[in-house]
Design a protein that fits this description.
Elements: E1 11-15, E2 22-27, H1 40-54, E3 59-64, E4 67-71
Antiparallel strand pairs: 1-4, 2-3
């Protein structure tokens, strides 16, 4: 008869310290898209400028980042890709 041993490890997910977040936006009324940027406020300003020119008022905003999982007891440096 075989036995299985299960153990629980605490995990957490954390943002990658070397890769900044990227902010993007696109208009819901047309094909306009903001230039991706590391500054979310700059993307918001682009959306407001587009809205002022076109009267389009709804946008999809996206924030993209890289994250990694750290197990309890491990170094919190990101692993190699």
């Amino acid at each position: 008869m075989s036995r299985a041993v299960f153990r629980s490890l605490v995990h957490r997910i954390t943002a990658h310290p070397d890769i900044p977040l990227t902010y993007t936006a696109s208009c819901e009324s047309c094909s306009w898209k903001a230039e991706p940027a590391a500054d979310g406020e700059a993307v918001d300003v682009e959306c407001m400028a587009h809205s002022g020119r076109s009267n389009h008022r709804q946008f999809t905003r996206t924030v993209t980042g890289r994250a990694f999982v750290v197990r309890e007891g491990e170094d919190s440096k990101p692993p190699a890709p």
